[in-house]
Amino acid sequence: MAHRAVYAMKTTIDYTLAPIILVLSLPFLLLAMALVKITSFGPAIYRQQRVGLCGREFTIFKIRTMFHECEKDSGIQWSSGKSDIRITPIGRILRALHIDELPQLINVLKGEMSLVGPRPERPEIVDDLRVSVYFYDRRHEVKPGLTGFAQVHLPPDANILTVKNKLIYDRYYIGRVSFWLDMKILCCTALKVVGLKLLYCRPPKRCATPAKSEE
Questions:
Q1: Which residue(s) pair with 111 in the sheet?
Q2: Distance (Å) of CA 80 to CA 40, 145, 153
Q3: Structure letter (DSSP) for residue 66
Q4: Among 17, 48, 55, 185, which residue carries the largest CB count within 10 Å?
């Protein structure tokens, strides 16, 4: 019953804050889309399948920060960060400011995402992680988020170890989700965007593989 109240609260926050943030950020969003179109070939907004609540797939919206069809020859792969040659010059700026994530507010308003939750991953990668990482699907017990507890503490996924470390943080969040925790995460996200230190920090733990008998 308590969990129902918490998730009802999260839904209220999502539908209250998401449209406000979207309206306030619209000038930056439109400017970013124009710069992407002017400086590189391809659409300004791209759509991609992601895995969300209960393992259901949905279409996520993002501002394109990589060269158009950059995975056509290489196939699906994680970004290697600042050294990733697939990222456009404008894309590096948009990623640093997290402006490329703003279109996902539409996903929040559609009820596919929440402002706070685990980051959604692509189906092709999820299929592999379900085999490589025990209980990976635990992170699909809540809606994926625009930001999250793992995201404000850890860098983007780059390999299996980073995924396992993030899963620890995702499971911590899922087990302790509350109004105040969501507010802290949103505040930390705002501070991170402008380059300031976090309000709090839980140092990454060494990933321990859960026992197979865990339920």
A1: none
A2: 20, 22, 18
A3: B
A4: 185
Residue 82: what pLDDT? 63
Cα dist from 132 to 112, 126, 151, 166, whole Å: 26, 10, 21, 14
The two three-digit tokens of residue 78, written as one number:
């994680």
Mean pLDDT of the chain: 85
Lookup result for tokens 């899922």: 174
List the domain range (segments joined by +) for residue 172. 2-193
Residue 206 is given by DSSP the state P
Residue 64 belongs to a domain: yes
Report if residue 115 sits inside a domain: yes
Q: Kindly report the pTM of this predicted structure.
A: 0.85
In a domain? residue 211: no
> DSSP labels for 10-63?
HHHHHHHHHHHHHHHHHHHHHHHHHHHHHHSSS-SEEEEEEE-GGG-EEEEEEE
Burial classification of residue 108, based on how many CB atoms lie within 10 Å of its CB (0-12 exposed, 13-18 middle, 19 or more buried): buried
Give the side-chain half-sphere CA count within 13 A for 55: 9
**Domains: count for the chain:** 1
Q: How confident is the model at residue 160 (pLDDT cuts 50, 70, 90)?
A: confident
What are 66-117's pLDDT values in tens digits?
887 776 666 676 666 666 788 899 999 998 888 999 999 999 999 999 999 9
State how far the Cα of 76 lies from the Cα of 88, in Å rounded to an integer: 18
Let me know if residue 199 belongs to a domain. no
